[in-house]
Amino acid sequence: MMYIHELAKLSGITTRTLRYYDEIGLLIPEKKIETGYRIYEQQHIDRLQQILFFRELGMPLDQIKDILNAEGFEQLKSLRQHQKALLQKKHYIMGLLETVEMSIQSIEEGLTMTNEQKFEGFKQQMIDDNELNFGKEIRGKYGEDSVLAAYSKIQNMTAEQYKAVQELEGRLLERLKEAMELGDPTAAIAEEAAELHKRWLCFYWPKYTKEAHAGLAQMYVADQRFTEYYDSRAGSGATQFLTASIVHYTQMD
């Protein structure tokens, strides 16, 4: 049993935060009727640990609440998922540290550092993020060999290719926004957005087909996580519009 100030000291978060978690129903302690003090039992401490794990991964509080309150929530399974995510994060940080150390050495000791080495850590982050967020889905749709081949293409990108793919995505998002203003997914500017999306994919895919392109677009609207990617960057409805544009584009002669 712990009082609120004891749990705050143990966990490293403020009493104000704990009170807020109580107010929104995320972490509801027992309360002594005569004093009104918040009392935290072991189950509350374990739940707070889960909350902090999810927060470390950048998950919003309302989503954390839904997950923890869901019927059939399994603590052990959740911890293993946290472990996997944190190991991937550790791998990314270690890669960045290695890149930083090499950059320092190249300046201090006059060592030669290739352009590819300068971007190695960032390319690994692209792979880790994709694997964490969409690994299961893309393996189910395209198979293990295709996924590994795509990751290999990312790892083998030159500095120029890495820069080009970042710029290409920026152009794609700008064209998508402009096309949405017209409201016609079959318009010429929408076709241009679909073409840019194809060129962007070709940096990652070992082989392009219209069927696979259209199938990926359908996955965008079928899975909320994919939908949020474009909607958060180009505006509400962007994913639906892009999907319609890609379907039209892939049906053109």
Automatic annotation (TrEMBL):
A GO term, aspect molecular function: DNA-binding transcription factor activity
SUPFAM superfamilies: Antibiotic binding domain of TipA-like multidrug resistance regulators, Putative DNA-binding domain
Domain annotation HTH merR-type: ranges: 1-70
Origin superkingdom: Bacteria
InterPro entries, A to Z: DNA-bd_dom_put_sf, MerR-type_HTH_dom, MerR_fam, TipA-like_antibiotic-bd, TipAS_dom
UniProt keyword terms in alphabetical order: Activator, DNA-binding, Transcription, Transcription regulation
Pfam family, one: MerR_1
Name of the protein in question: MerR family transcriptional regulator
